[in-house]
Amino acid sequence: MAEVPTYRTPEVITPTREFLDKMEEMWSDPPGIIGWLSTVDHKKIGRRYLVTAFLFLFVGGLEALIMRLQLAQPNEHMVGPHLYNQLFSMHGTTMIFLYALPILSGFSNFIWPLILGTRDMAFPRLNMFTYWTFLLAGAFMYIGFPTGQGTDVGWFNYVPLAGSAYNPGPGVDIFALGMIFLGISTTAGAINFIATMFRTRAPGMSISRVPIMIWGTLTANVGILFAVPAVSLDFFLLWLDRRFGTDFFNVSGGGHPLLWQHLFWIFGHPWVYAIVLPAMSIVSQCLPVHCRRPLVANSAVILATILTMVLGFGVWVHHMFATGLPVIAMGFFSAASFIIVIPSAVSVFAWVATIWTGRPVFTTAFKFFAAEIVLFVIGGVSGFMTAAVPLDWQLTDTYFVVAHIHYVLIGINVFPVIGGIYHWFPKFAGKMLNEKLGWWNFWLMFIGFNVGFFPMHISGLLGMPRRVYTYPAGLGWGDLNLVTTIGAFIFALGVLVFLVNVVMTLLRGKQAPANPWDADTLEWTTSSPPPHYNFGVIPHVGSLHPLWEDRLEQSDGRTVLHEGLKLDEEHEIPGTTILDAEADVILKMPGKSFAPLIMALLISGVFIGMLLEWWWISGAAMCAMFPALLYWFWPSAEVGRSPRESRA
Amino acid sequence: MKRRRLPIVLSFAAVLFLPGAAWADLPMTYLITNGSAANPLAHLGWGLMGLSVFVIVFIALAVLIGIWRGRRSWPMDAAGRPKLLPGVNAAPFVVIGVCVSIVLLFGSAVWTFFTLAHVSQPPKDPAITLDVTAHQWWWEVEYKHYGQKLRTFVTANEIHVPVGEPVRVRLIGTDVIHSFWAPELFGKMDVIPGQTNITWFEAGKAGVYRGQCTEFCGLQHAHMAFHIVAQPPAKFHQWWTHQLADAKQPVSPQAQHGERVFLHHCAICHTVRGAGSPDIVAMGKLGPDLTHLMSRHWLGAGTVPNTTGYLAAWVENAQSIKPGIAMPTMDLTNRQLLDVVAYLQTLN
Prior knowledge:
The complex is a heterodimer of chains A (about 650) and B (about 350).
Chain A: E1 12-13, H1 17-27, H2 32-38, H3 42-71, H4 81-115, H5 124-141, H6 171-199, H7 212-244, H8 257-291, H9 298-312, H10 327-339, H11 341-356, H12 364-387, H13 389-395, H14 399-429, E2 431-432, H15 435-461, H16 478-508, E3 510-511, E4 538-540, H17 549-552, E5 560-565, E6 572-576, E7 583-588, H18 595-612, H19 615-633, H20 643-646
Antiparallel strand pairs in A: 1-5, 2-3, 4-5, 6-7
Helix pairs in contact in A: 3-4, 3-5, 3-16, 4-6, 4-8, 4-14, 5-6, 5-18, 6-7, 6-18, 7-8, 7-9, 8-9, 8-11, 8-12, 8-14, 9-11, 11-12, 12-14, 12-15, 14-15, 15-16, 18-19
Chain B: H1 2-16, H2 39-69, H3 91-119, E1 128-135, E2 138-146, E3 149-156, E4 158-162, E5 167-173, E6 178-182, E7 186-191, E8 197-201, E9 207-212, E10 225-231, H4 233-244, H5 253-265, E11 271-276, E12 281-283, E13 298-299, E14 304-305, H6 308-321, H7 334-344
Parallel strand pairs in B: 1-5, 4-10
Antiparallel strand pairs in B: 1-2, 2-3, 5-8, 6-7, 9-10, 11-12, 13-14
């Protein structure tokens, strides 16, 4: 075992019952509302992310169903254009920003410390802060909608339509400020994930032994750090244009509307990868478990994941092929968009090969993951078609692209997420989701999804534009839209069955064993659900598949679970080196704190003041942040007792 | 297993066979086209779509067969768990798959670039230049050059062109971003304030082609269509000459009264060349030019057909047909309404 150069070298012990009881006492939160509001437990934060993101999915889904009723037949009058435009704008905003990434943050928050063999994220209070800001930003973005003042210019929010001349109401201001607000949460979360990955892995988990799920989320979060500033700036400039009459996007003042689009898509395309790469890595992590073998070409898939993100920063113009850019420039971005198919192909072939050379177990989780492969390919090839510039001049802004984005976001995000919840529910809640209901859940979702969304390709090929609240008869779109509406409702029924399954399981589900799937990674060494402290003693990792290494016989390394570092003086975890994961410091982790909640509320105050133009509110909230930050960072008796310790 | 395959098979059947031969009658499809700016795009579309369907079928079958293979008997380990299968090295499978993908991608990219180069310029210098200005939510069309002649006139929402002649379109943005698109004739080009985009098209055969705005442009984005009428050159020339002429003076007393109503209520927004007297003219620029209104087949940018009933309804209360547009609900008596409609119907 590696040497731990701190002022004290922790003993290596085999934990006793008394020791674990002491740990449980030390790591658990106080009961009641105090504990609920002040907790920094990554498992609770992860569950809150999952539940909140699902609520947003539910709301966004209801918005979609209303739209589908309106579009079921030509010339319908169920909702007028004013409401319809708000519905599609809020639907897109909700699903892309308030569901798709937060749900993955939920998985990562819950699973990361467990799969990395540690006890918490690198910055527990920052972690709690990201949840509160996400929740408050999400609520902020919804304050206009119930009163008919939701944003109605789409999630892409193009100027000049989103400018004050054509959209004087508060809807766009709410959206713009909400996006900047949410960006704080996303950025802080990304920093936390990156630090967690590089500094808090269990000793012995060298860079080649990091589970693939970590790589997907890590890659996405590095991308987020570079992408989110562009969109925050974009919305900030828009807000200045709208409220202070600046001319960043106004032609009359020397600005240009395409500046908006460039900044938006420089963010927007990497964001697509940010919300699919972690979900793909869930598949890469879990599918092999249900196929009874390690993932084929594990390293290649990791490299492909990273390559996808890197290339993802060089393809944004393919959202703008119809804006009249020079042909040479479009050729470059077209080529880059074609190339991005290659890393995707690596993942697909690796998954298929894993199924071929494994023995699939037909669990519900497996069905969702296997379905994801096919849906990913359908969404991938339709994306490949839109990468061809001249063809994109026809495809863009038709329902073909609507079909594409839903195959990507539902196929590669929702399906792995539901599969992942079946897979990890024993850890989330200590129970096994019902497989019979799972069968209904999967088939309703899979059939409903394809019945609903595949015909959108055809209505797109027949020329139906996006974002129309109604359409005339006689263009061949009516029957296809009816089928789409029916499919959408079947899909919604499938999601409902999932919710029923979750609720029934929570009420009277079967208690789950520690490792029901016989999976390979460290989270399955803990009980279901895991104890507050995760690991009584910190494991020492010897291979990529700690629980399979005896049977795989691929490497000599052996993971040590029954004994490990005794870190029991308040909240302690080992800090490890970036590449080799040698323990080099004891990290003193903070415990419960109200500071994250207070900071998030103060930031809400700043944004509410900006929205209402009651500057004194913003000013007061900003001033109050100084004492709040002092409170946050105030040295406590438990944290940072020696210079060596506080170094990290 | 069988249940699993069914929806996929049905979906493929749908895309391949369901619309089938009927596609020729669908006015907005771009898979069957009629112009030299759109035909290469359709070919590329069919090609890449064929490749895409092949890839989907191949991977779907691979997944299904993989699952089916896995149904063979299960070895259990000593602990009664499904045995792990560590041994098989399947990485070469991935390498082969990726290599084949690269070859297919390279071919697709080359085809794309040739198509791009081919359609980026018209085959010959266009004889006709149009200025199309996009408004919320209609299209203003100004004819500029026609052959050697530079004689301009303005119309709206209906574009006539001669068959077999390339037409250059300059796209002028005034308010928000729109996108100009008639799928059977050409791919989209955005209309963006602050820059003039230029595109071109050429109708291969006579007919009426439907087009529509495809960049979300606000409340009535759904009702921002236009039509392109491709005619034999002689008929086009006749139309062009007719459009150049001013409106004829109304003859019947009813229409003459209607003209006076028009001049007082409508002329602030609409132009009718030749209407009125030197004291009062119809030169409004906010709404469509109505000089030859009755030569057009649609009202409100393709929203309703140009029939007497719809025309009267439009004049009286356009907001009920297309809520949110700039045209206000007109406060006219019944008599005034009937007269102004009678006048408008003389504008052939």
